């Protein structure tokens, strides 16, 4: 099953939703629901409720990182996070950095060095120029960001902003 709650760049949807339900019969089975992190807890609350409706014998939950501010405490976790922070997982790095880049740009036109500086200042994220240029180029190809060249600046801005 796939449950969605966050979009790119730590933007949260109004509520968690099940995008892909479980396509097989799990009645009478032991089920482990695994997620990367408990943040608000909504994803796991929704998941457990949904799986319970499918009549399993037992449900357990596990996450890599459990944020203690979460409204859901999993049965198992590898690490407890006491002070809230955004965690970037390798499988979500591109999505997160793309979303943060758009937030950094806002309605401004910025050059690559300024964007890199703001990643560090705002989010404490070290991002290399090569990686950032690839992300910006992808955003240009998706028509979400545009590249701006003037006599004094090569920069990027969110499409439609001035």
What's the helical proportion of residues? 25-40%
Mean pLDDT: 91
| Named CATH topology of the largest domain | Rossmann fold
User: Please, how many domains?
Assistant: 2
Shape: elongated
Tell me about the biggest sheet? 3 strands, parallel
CATH class of the largest domain: Alpha Beta
Radius of gyration: 20 Å
- The order of strands across the largest sheet is 3-4-5
Number of strands: 8
End-to-end CA span? 41 Å
Order of helices and strands: EEEHEEHEHHEE
**Content-based structural category:** alpha/beta
Low-confidence stretches: none
CATH-defined architecture of the largest domain: 3-Layer(aba) Sandwich
Summed up, the helix count is 4
Strand content: 25-35%
Fold blueprint:
Layout: E1 2-6, E2 12-20, E3 30-38, H1 42-52, E4 58-67, E5 76-81, H2 93-105, E6 110-111, H3 112-123, H4 129-141, E7 145-149, E8 154-158
Parallel strand pairs: 3-4, 4-5
Antiparallel strand pairs: 1-2, 6-8, 7-8
Q: Could you describe the 3D structure shown?
A:
This protein folds into 2 domains: 80 residues, Rossmann fold (3-Layer(aba) Sandwich); 69 residues, Winged helix-like DNA-binding domain superfamily/Winged helix DNA-binding domain (Arc Repressor Mutant, subunit A), CATH 1.10.10. The radius of gyration is 20 Å and the shape is elongated. It contains 4 helices and 8 strands, in the order E-E-E-H-E-E-H-E-H-H-E-E. With 162 residues, it is an alpha/beta fold. Strands 3-4-5 form a 3-stranded parallel β-sheet, with helices on one face.
